[in-house]
Each structure stands twice: as C-alpha cells, then as structure tokens.
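Changelog-adjacent note: as of this version, every example in the card shows the full chain rather than a window. The one below runs 207 residues end to end.
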Amino acid sequence: MKPVRIGTRSSALAMWQAQWVQNALSEIGIATEIVPIHSSGDNNLVQPLYEMGVVGVFTKELDQALLQKEVDICVHSMKDVPTQLPDGIVEGFVPKRGPAGDVFVFREKNWESLPQRTIATSSLRRQAQWLFAHKNDTIVPLRGNIQTRLDKIQINNWDGAVFAQAGLQRLATNPATYCPIDWMIPAPAQGAILVTAREDDPKLLEK
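Full-length structure tokens:
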C-alpha cells in the first residue's frame, strides 16, 4: 500500500502539526509521507493578510493539491480554513483542541507603566481589541513565522507583540517575558487542527 501523502504548509508550526498527524496515523499502522506546499500567505510576507484579497490565503494551494490528487490529506490550522470548504473537500478529523487564547510577549517588564507603546500584530481582531483596551498605543504590522516575529520585537525595539498561545506551546518556544491576554477574544477555532480529505476517497475517510 502506498503511503498516505500529507499536504502541509512548510512553516515550522505547520510541519509540527503535520508530524503530529503523521505520528497519530503511524500508531494505527498507516504509513505516511509529508509533502510541504507553499501557500499565498507564505509567499507574501510583506502585505497584511486582509489586504491580499484571497479567500483561504493559507489553504488555497493545499486545496488545489488535494483536488489534483498530489496529496491524500491536508493538515491546517483550523482558524485559517474558510467557513465553506471547496467542492470535493470534506473535514476528515479534528484532534483535541490546544490552548485557544492569545498571549502578549513583551520586551521590558515595566511595559504597563509606559505612557504609549508600540505593539506588533497584523490581525485586525487583535488590533481592534488591543486598541479598545489601550487607546494610546500604536499598532505596527507583523508577518512571518513564530521565531521571525519574536526576533522582530527585539530588532525593531517594539514594546511587544501578540501571539497565539497554541503556536508557542507546540514549538516549545518560551519567551523570557510574556503573559496571557485573558480579556482578548480568540479567533474561531484558534488552537485547533483540521485534517481535510477528498470527498471521493471513502476508504481513506474510514481510517
């Protein structure tokens, strides 16, 4: 039997999630191979996501590979998946959800006493909630993988940035100074992983 081909983005977090699925399938005797795929969101790290005008900015290329039978399943961060899947693609499996909340990674421990701060995030949801709570702060865009974003805080002398707790935890990334943002409403499905499959592949779906 040919190994099940797992499509995934090539970022460190996406690869971690694909390897988690790979290990889960291995435990029930299913051989797999991971196929990294570059998404529109990964290829353009300058423009804010909300300006790109692409539905499924992190999933479109994976969906195409799945429908063209270049891979057999795809692993996504569920929050990146559009509410309506493309025709021919179905939800296959949702593992137990990880932490759903956001955390604030800060540069100086006295950040709360500063009269005005520069906070990095490219998420409109996070921007709106942060500015509602801290009206004098300035928001700057922040793109890239987790380690790149952490490095940018120091390089640019920003006061801090907002991250998903699940991403930091999965990569065992422990910033020296951070705190949970318990008042911030997370994105729908944040912290969850979604495995998709082709609708016309019933044998794989049964597994």
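Structural remarks: Strands lie at 4-9, 32-37, 73-77, 89-93, 102-106, 118-120, 138-140, 160-164, 178-180, 193-198.
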